[in-house]
Amino acid sequence: xxDTAAMSVPRPCDLLVRADAAxxxxxxxxxxxxxxxxxxxxxxxxxxxxxxxxxGYEPEQRLDLSGKLLLPGLVNGHTHLxxxxxxxxxxxxxxxDWLEKHIWPVEFQLTDDLLDTGARLGCAELIRTGCxxxxxxxxxEHVTGQAVIDCGMRGVLGEGFFGFPSPLFPTAEDCWNTIRxxxxxxxxxxxxxxxxxxHAAFTVPPEELAASFALAEELDIPWQIHLAESxxxxxxxxxxxxxxxxxxxxxxxxxxxxxxxxxxVDVTDEEIALMAETGVNVVHNPASNFKLASGMSPVQKMLxxxxxxxxxxxxxxxxxxxxxxxEMGLAALMGKVRAEDASAVNAQAALDMATLGSxxxxxxxxxxxIEKGCPADMIALDLGFPNLMPVFNHVSHAVYAATGMEVCxxxxxxxxxxxxxxxxxxxxxxxxxxxxxxxxxVCNAAEK
Length: 448
Fold this sequence. Notes:
Number of helices: 15
Structural class: alpha/beta
CATH class of the largest domain: Alpha Beta
CATH topology of the largest domain: TIM Barrel
Strand order of the largest sheet: 3-2-1-4-13-14-15-16
Helix content: 25-40%
Mean pLDDT: 96
Distance between the termini: 69 Å
CATH architecture of the largest domain: Alpha-Beta Barrel
Number of domains: 2
Radius of gyration: 22 Å
């Protein structure tokens, strides 16, 4: 018997959302028609049929999404939000040339004001395309944190660092203090968390990786790193340390359930088995891997081995979008080609990666689902778009047919952030002006 069947009088709730259908991503992966969701205090009270919930609840507000498909908010498992400032700046280059000759020289000149503009641009793009939470890795992360607070999203902030000394941190202790201060600053905010974020195994020495992992354990927060992104990275690790990236981390005890690995393109079957055994999380970034010609991650093998796989866009400079709908489609298509099997990385698997899988990669497993007791983070697709007609399979449409531009509503913790073209928590007009000014700055910085 449902909660509502036992009620004699309707219960109060803050919001009752109605939609033609809802892909819940709950434990049973239910897809409901004539669906409704009751929300109170930012959490889902109940999910069910419209007639049942209308009879069982007395809402303060109603949101009628007739003709729409309700989905959990998508979760971006790997991005560098302020890199929106470098979108299109250095295209069509291999990974190491792109980083060393173009991206890093400009990044190290960025100011807090510019980072704020980039972070807010990123938030606007994520909200517009149905993403409600993300795992970030950049620097001066307090700036991105404030942007997240203001726009109403969720974020996990990762203060990025390289080997020491670096242009960002003269010593390791400077970096550890910055991370501790970031955690203290946002520890009581319901929509912000932090992570320890070394850049990669080829840019941070093993002893510093181990020290940073100890810090993550001390603070009890996730530890994330780019790993095995390309054969070139593997070659550098072999040359420096005589070990492949996965083995290097294993040697230092860095493969655990606390660990989230980004990319994992150049990994062997034995390494995949080790990743499954140790319980690490992996974030797949198909668009970025394609664009940088890094290769195709063996995602189907990881899924079959039992590895938790999430999905991310990477930064807007190597993608060049922060659109998780495009990422889902690419993940499914790449997975089929990589496995030489049309049934590999099917639509449900791709959606799982963009919701439940990414949520686990963030260390926030209650996200990515519309389920009783979970945060009321939801989005809606307008099924009236020609590319979404007719509907035979809602999950298939979300992965293969949707572009992200059909998103007509984005909600976090029961608060609507975007509805029918209107950003409710952001001034996108002034943001456009700041973006144009930032573009001029990038051009000048590139000449220095």
